[in-house]
Amino acid sequence: MSSQTISYTRVLWLGWCVFLCLVTYRGRAQTELLHELAIHSDNDAYLFINQDQYYTNGISFSYRWLVNKDRSATASKKRIWEVAAGHKLYNAYNGFSEIELMDRPFTAYLYLQASHSWFYQNESQLRAGLVTGLYGKGAFGQQLQEGFHNLFGFYEISGWDYQLRGNFTVDLRADYNRLILRSTSGKLDLQFNTKLSLGLNQSFVGAGPVLRLGKLNALYESSYTGSRLYQSGNTVKKERYFYYRPMLFYRLYDASIQGGMLLDERGLVTFGIKPWMLSQVVGFNYAHKRITVDAHLQFNTKEVKSSATAHQFGSISLGYAF
The domain containing residue 223 runs over which residues? Predict the structure, then answer.
């Protein structure tokens, strides 16, 4: 492992430690938790394998708030709104690729997302939302990556002259999650999850099981579904569990690889996509009172019709409810 990767990972972990210290500060006691702030980070440096390629970095900030629960026995048990803002960086097999060796486009994606989730007594969840975003120079990928590498003395970036053309995207997205079974001990459960996205950025459908093992809550009050918020007179128990989520996707379009769908000139470097992709996620989650911590690894099969290989990265999320 290079000293650059070691330095980079130390900076990342220091940032997470500072954030954790800030959010664990306790204010006055509350009998309800109606809001949650969270930060989520993706990076292949979390795997400690000296990798800097493809989907190389992502960060998002989100805010959730609980809507008053419906009292009707036939209505949803809980409803939660969420808004998020984020940024994603993509490059070829490394950040100094010559154009003839590039196996994935250089590009950045800046986005805003809003969604609404319904949680039901039968432990099913439906989430629907809208995502709008921007690719190209307006997403400031070159400035952010070059600035970060210069600040910490990493290698010189040289591929952004060939980044994708700027384009605006809008996607409609929906997720449905349903409990299939839970053991009599309550320490293991199986869910089935489906995902759908239609739009100018990503169009796909995906489905697969979710297996959890450990100290579990119902899906309408679980960190896995982002539903630990509660009103006065209620409480939510501690959670601590491992999970495994394999999901098979059929992909119709990916603007981070193919460029803007409506553009005539999409960029000097674009590729087709592999329609079938298997994504496997292995992770651990801990949630107690105000704090939620999640860490997982994601392994994707080959996504690009080029010499690009399969890709993997790590993710860390921290949430604070109030």
Answer: 3-24+32-321
